[in-house]
Amino acid sequence: MPTTIEMPKLSDTMTEGTLLRWIKKVGDPVEVGDVIAEVETDKATMEMEAFDEGTLAEVYVEEGQKVQVGQKLAILTGEGEEAPKPPGESKKVGADKKEREQTAESAAAEKKPLSKEPVRSAAEPTPESPQQTAPSTGTSQTRSKASPLARKVAAELGVELQQVSGSGPGGRIVRSDVLSAAKTEQKGPDRAKAAPTPETLKTDQRISLSGMRRTIANRLLEAKTTIPHFYLQAEIDAQPLISLRQQINSAAEATGLPKITVNDFILKATAVAAAHVPQANAAFAGDAIIQYADVQLACAVAVDEGLVTPVIREAQRKSLSQISSEIKDLAARARSKKLKPEEYQGGTITVSNLGGYGVEQFFAIINPPQSVIVSVGAIVAKPVVDAQDQIVAGQRIALGLSCDHRVVDGAIGAQLLAELKRLLEIPALMLI
Amino acid sequence: MDGRGPSVPNYCFMKYDLIVVGGGPAGYVGAIRAAQLGKKVACVEKERAGGTCLNWGCIPTKSLLRNAELFQLMQKRSADFGFRFDKLTYDWPKIISRSRSVADKLAGGVEFLFKKNKIDYLRGEAAIPTAGKVTYKDRNGKEETVEGDHILIATGAVAREMPGLPVNGKTVVNSHDAMIIDPQPKKLIVIGAGAIGVEFAYFFNAFGTEVTLVEMLPNVLPVEDTEISVALEKSLSKQGIKIFTNTTVASAKAEKGQVRVNLEGKQAQELQADCALIAIGVSPIVPTGVSITLDKKGFISVDDRYQTNVPGIFAAGDVIGPPWLAHVASWEAIQTVEGIFTKGFRPQRVKEFPGCTYCQPQVASIGLTERAAKEQGLKFKVGKFPFAANGKALAAGEPEGFIKILIAEPHGEVLGAHIVGPEATELIAELGLAMKLEATYEEIEATIHAHPTLSETVHEAVGAAFGEAIHI
User: Fold this and answer.
1) Domain A135-210 belongs to what architecture?
2) Which of these, A248, B161, B306, B387, could form a disulfide with B393 (CB 3.0-4.6 Å)?
3) Architecture in CATH for domain B10-54+97-159+283-341
């Protein structure tokens, strides 16, 4: 039996993925576990492995094409088998490749994803993921009203239907609309060449959403509009932290060990504080509150197209140096989009640090289903009043806490913030 | 009430938004649409609402053809169906009066629609002395004037006269006369094998008139796909009609009680008959008054918005030229009226339209013929499917004919569809929709067609273009 390879659901929020590259080409033999292609999801770039063996008989999507989860990507055939004809293919008169793919795409788009995932890299859901419900929005793109012929011609000419205005019945896009749009597009660059004034070069751009951007949009809109946020703020004395860090790092330099950053301290402190105030290491689950046994510490990492929050597992049990080396590795792989889903799923509390950008203070949006996010500002030198009521020079960090009031009341949030402040101002406490 | 609408007619004190001249398929439809758009509308008609189509064209002839079809079935094929008649006869005056009563009923329907839409229905022959004004003489010869911001000329056309053989209503007739001719002619020469000529040839032949059909072009129904025309010629010949193609009338003479026609071309001979039917097309009826630019053949020239050279005067329907079809006329009138009153509406000119001929077997088509597609240098595939392989056609005892669909390459849109066979005129609707929506063969193929129906032939013909028809 020929096996259909479909776009796997590689993360619980994934609704579509971009097929970045076919590693195997049509005609290549495929063994179980072979990497067939690279797929970019909303979170990361992943390798797609074969679940069956056979020969890659046919591929239906081109590199760079966005594909809905469950849509047909390719066909694997066994020995002596022939690939089944995609709908309409045999009678395709003078069909070029693009057009055939269009056909396959539209036919496959109607199919529901099979329950059996043909690709193995779809990870097992992490234990926490049942609560981490994916936002169900954003799967359907706005559909242009266009005739089947107009769609085919647009696909062939590379015309974006969203950019075409329709002259058919009810504003329907018909072939002539696509043809005239294609003509204008062709003329466009020519005109620009003829008169390359700065004005003509600077035009508004329409940037289509990447999977990651769409997920950020959906999830944060959901968070900001459905979670009753409240905010707490405290300033900590960073001097002890700075001194301890200097000690550790000068020792590390001598022994060739990796250095520790301020952020590492904050991560460690957050892990310990969350373990001490378990009411804040929790999630709202509709008819219950789930209090997590472990601190799965998420840390926001800026990447090219947006941000990812890789998770340090059971962070409350890990040492400062463990946390430091783990986050270094996770952040690097997040930037190169090499994170596996289980590495960014299932966080229970998040730290977002914009101190490196000089931001003094801010309040981040909660990353659902978590209840708390810690916003960390820059270390700022400023006058402070010391214990002796003297104005002295101080090194300060502003911490912001955004809390979900359904789970965390003001007092609990305050308790967590106070614990953080205590740990960071007397960093030795973190060692016990 | 005298059919003029309200008891205090609007025209006494107001200016209309639109005055439509002519109450046929263009005129009455245009008037109703304008009224639907909230406009004050008058429609001036010299005879009776409904125009040629309803009174002297499409509708009454369909009544006659239904008689012919039933009689032919009972007379020629009753044994096939297991019926026996001792003596099958018909009542010619009744056949004609049934046709008239159908027309009467529908004409009354149009008058009702005028009332319902509060359109002033003005009876009389109209003239347009200047833009914005229409005069008409009522039945007492009294001249009335109405004023309106816009005028739509929808006066239609009449049967074209044949040079040298003027219509006299007895031995030389046009389609109007032919549908009420009594007694039934024994021998009839039909000159012109377009839809009208073919339909009358079929009708009279079915009732036993000896019919000769003369056409100067190589095939009957010359606008149709040649393959369809050839199939129809065979069928009509088998039914007993003499068909002379590539033949023209050199001279003709109407004598007392008979007509003599000298033919030249492929069938050069002299024919004698008791009647000749002239069916060589139509001539426009242009209202008198303001000077309106006409094309070479005398039809009114209009721009993209159906406006004539005189601002404020528009024209639609048969009077602006071919195709002379009721459904096209109505469509044009709606385009015109929407173009006048609906902001941002861009009227379109007719592109694809179905054409139907109601002889048996019926002929219907839309879009390009195979020869037109070749002339345009288009790439396409042809899918054909015979009714003989269709269950419903066999069950109905109508296995004659076939469907032919032209599928363009490479995108697979429908270029044209041609049907000769049972209910061809009903089957064409699906393909009209397919073409309007720019469906490709894939959408037609993906559509489940009910079984058993004649419409399965559409599905199968599309499949046949790719060697995938199931039942052949």
Assistant:
1) Irregular (4.10)
2) B387
3) 3-Layer(bba) Sandwich (3.50)
CA distance A184 to chain B (A): 21
Topology of the domain covering B361-464: Enolase-like; domain 1 (3.30.390)
- Reply yes or no on domain A3-109 having CATH 2.40.50.100: yes
Q: How far apart are CA A408 and CA A280, in angstroms?
A: 6
A301 three-class SS? strand
Alpha-carbon distances of B82 from B78, B114, B382, rounded to whole Å:
6, 48, 39
CATH of B172-280, one of 3.50.50.60, 3.40.50.2020, 3.40.50.1000, 3.30.1360.120: 3.50.50.60
Is A161:A146 a contact under the CB 8 Å cutoff? Answer: yes
Question: For chain A, what are the domain ranges?
Answer: 3-109, 135-210, 227-431
Residues of A with CB under 8 A from a CB of B: 87-88, 90-96, 99, 103, 147-150, 152-153, 156, 167-169, 172, 174-175
Q: How far is A5 from chain B (nearest CA, A)?
A: 24
Set of chain A residues whose Cβ sits within 8 Å of the Cβ of B379: 93-94
Q: Which of B150, B327, B451, B471 is catalytic?
A: B451
Question: What are the b/e assignments for A176-198, b being 16+ CB within 10 Å?
Answer: ebbbebbeeeeeeeeeeeeeeee
Instruction: Note whether B304 contacts A: Cβ–Cβ < 8 A.
Output: no
State the CB neighbour count (10 A cutoff) for residue A143.
8
pLDDT tens for chain B, 472 residues long, are 444 444 445 445 579 999 999 999 999 999 999 999 999 999 999 999 999 989 999 999 999 999 999 999 999 999 999 999 888 999 999 999 999 999 999 988 999 999 999 999 999 999 999 999 999 998 788 899 999 999 999 999 999 999 999 999 999 999 999 999 999 999 999 999 999 999 999 999 999 999 999 999 999 999 999 999 999 999 999 999 999 999 999 999 998 889 999 999 999 999 999 999 999 999 999 999 999 999 999 999 999 999 999 999 999 999 999 999 999 999 999 999 999 999 888 899 998 999 999 999 999 999 999 999 999 999 999 999 999 999 999 999 999 999 999 999 989 999 999 999 999 999 999 999 999 999 999 899 999 999 999 999 999 999 999 888 888 7
- Which chain A residues are within 8 Å of B439, Cβ to Cβ? 147-149
CB–CB of A149 and B441 under 8 A?
no
Q: In angstroms, what separates the C-alpha of B213 from chain A's closest C-alpha? A: 42
pTM: 0.59
CATH number assigned to the domain with residue range A227-431, chosen from the 4 options 3.90.650.10, 3.30.559.10, 3.90.1640.30, 3.10.20.30: 3.30.559.10
Q: Say how far apart CA A202 and CA B453 lie, in whole Å.
A: 60
Looking at chain B, which residues constitute the CATH 3.50.50.60 domain(s)? 10-54+97-159+283-341, 172-280
Is B451 one of the annotated active-site residues of the chain? yes
Give the ipTM of the model, two decimals please. Answer: 0.71
d(CA B427, CA B454): 8
- Chain A positions touching B410 (Cβ under 8 A) are 92-96, 99
B103 to chain A, any CB pair closer than 8 A? The answer is: no
Contacts of A93 in chain B (CB under 8 A): 379, 381, 407, 409-410, 412, 466
> In B, which residues are within 8 Å of A175 by CB distance?
413, 438
- Beta-carbon separation of B442 and A103 below 8 A: yes
Tell me phi and psi for residue B404, to 5 degrees: -140, 125
d(CA A151, CA B166): 55
